[in-house]
Amino acid sequence: MPTAHDIARDNDAFRITGTGRGQTLFTAGASTPVERQLLLQAAVQTFTTFTEDNDPYGEHDFGKLELLGVTYFWKIDYYASAECRLGGDPYSEPVYRVLTVMRADEY
Fold it and tell me: CA distances (Å), 88 to each of 5, 81, 92, 95, in order?
């Protein structure tokens, strides 16, 4: 069974490189204009500000950041398959990750 450290490592690898089982989604508020989306993607990939408040389980599956005066959240959800059936568990393999990036006011 993977530990929180293992999950954080896998979440970081997926978030930073986009490799592995999963996909990244940008909400409507986070996807336009394209130039902002590219800056936002880079900010998510380089995010390192994990604290007890935003990462209480040490799994690196949530972040909050500011970009061009706007607050954004990103989060990683776990699914059992690429069809995104509910019930994914980061402690059972294989897991399908969905990284969602959104403006804070869309949450």
Answer: 18, 8, 8, 6
The string of pLDDT tens digits covering residues 2-61 is 899 999 999 999 999 998 889 999 999 998 889 999 999 999 999 999 999 999 999 999
Q: How far apart are CA 49 and CA 60, in angstroms?
A: 10
75: how many CB neighbours lie within 10 A of its CB?
14
CA distance 81 to 49: 29
Does the pTM exceed 0.70?
A: yes
Measured between alpha carbons, how far is 71 from 49 in angstroms, rounded to an integer?
Answer: 14
Q: Are 39 and 32 in contact (CB under 8 A)?
A: no
Using DSSP, state whether 74 is helix, strand or coil: strand
Tens digit of each residue's pLDDT (9 = 90 or more) over 47-60: 999 999 999 999 99
Handedness of CA 44, 50, 51, 52 (dihedral sign): positive
